[in-house]
Design brief:
five-stranded antiparallel sheet, about 40% helix, globular, about 150 residues, alpha+beta, 5 strands, single chain
């Protein structure tokens, strides 16, 4: 767990350095034409959520498993794309209980994470490229899985 928290801090610092505008680059981004909502939502899910899950998966590979389902069959052409992932503790002798989480993008651009038995948590908006809220929630979910809850 310590490795993941250290990686999270390094990621926060790198993100702060990347977000500093250089010249009129920030103005150019604002003036660019908006892409199709579905494509923009998919790009956000890939850039923020999947990248965060992949980083977490690499950091906790010995203790906890993170399985990512990037293209649920029933939502391949959906207007509001989603991603499912599972987090579970790796146990040698018994089958570990798996919790399945769904990251949903609403038409408003709001992004939330839900699971059966869990209150839906807001993790941002597709207009915000920061992954801080997503990484924090993933860290909490991994800690819960490591504890066996």
């Amino acid at each position: 767990m310590a490795k993941f928290k250290e990686a999270l801090e390094r990621g926060k610092e790198a993100r702060r350095q990347q977000e500093e505008p250089v010249g009129d680059v920030e103005v150019g981004k604002r003036d660019a034409p908006m892409a199709d909502f579905s494509e923009q939502a998919k790009a956000w899910l890939n850039d923020v959520v999947i990248a965060s899950l992949e980083a977490a998966k690499a950091d906790v590979a010995g203790e906890v498993a993170v399985d990512i389902d990037t293209a649920p069959r029933r939502q391949v052409k959906a207007l509001t794309p989603s991603i499912r992932f599972q987090i579970y503790r790796k146990r040698e002798l018994e089958k570990a209980p798996r919790r399945t989480f769904t990251v949903n993008v609403k038409v408003s651009g709001a992004v939330s994470v839900s699971s059966p038995g869990m209150v839906t948590k807001d993790v941002g908006n597709i207009g915000d490229r920061s992954d801080l809220r997503v990484r924090t929630l993933i860290a909490e979910l991994i800690e819960d899985a490591a504890k066996g809850t």
